[in-house]
Amino acid sequence: MSGKTFSLRATPEEAAQLAGALTAYAHAAFPPGGSECAQVSRETLLESARQIAAQAGTDNGAQLRRRQRKVFKSALQWYFSDDGPGDPALCAAMLAKFP
User: Fold this and answer.
1) Is the pLDDT of residue 63 over 90?
2) Which of 61, 60, 25, 59 is nearest to 44 (CA)?
3) Above 60 in pLDDT, residue 1?
4) Which of 30, 56, 63, 66 is 20 to 30 Å from 5 at the Cα level?
5) For residue 63, what are the contacts with CB-CB under 8 A and spacing of at least 6?
6) Total-model pTM
7) Helix/strand/coil (H, E, C) string of the chain?
8) Is the dihedral of CA 81, 22, 39, 66 positive or negative?
9) Band (2; pLDDT cuts 50, 70, 90)
């Protein structure tokens, strides 16, 4: 399964920002009461955010699925944009965490 995952290593501060961005995006893009597929996407993003926060600063980092990278990048691009709640100056650094 190692080919299907990648390690995301982040400092505790970076992890908090990344987890916050994924959580905010999950709530904004996939609100409760949506389709079953949307709810699965929401829960998957929220679980990934929990993993990132829990593995902050560890040697192995959070083990995340490669196929989710596109959604992660979309979440970060929205969150760290002029339209999102995050600081746009951090966008490039946060996106660089996802190979």
Assistant:
1) yes
2) 25
3) no
4) 30
5) 5, 6, 7, 51, 55
6) 0.92
7) CHHHEEEECCCHHHHHHHHHHHHHHHHHHCCCCCCHHHHHHHHHHHHHHHHHHHCCCCCCCEEEEHHHHHHHHHHHHHHCCCCCCCCHHHHHHHHCCCC
8) positive
9) low
Domain count, the chain: 1
What phi, psi does 3 have (nearest 5°)? Answer: -70, -20
pLDDT per position as a tens digit, 6-59: 999 999 999 999 999 999 999 999 999 999 999 999 999 999 999 999 999 999
d(C-alpha 7, C-alpha 79), whole Å = 22
Whole-angstrom distance, CA of residue 44 vs CA of residue 69: 12
Domain range for 72 is 2-95
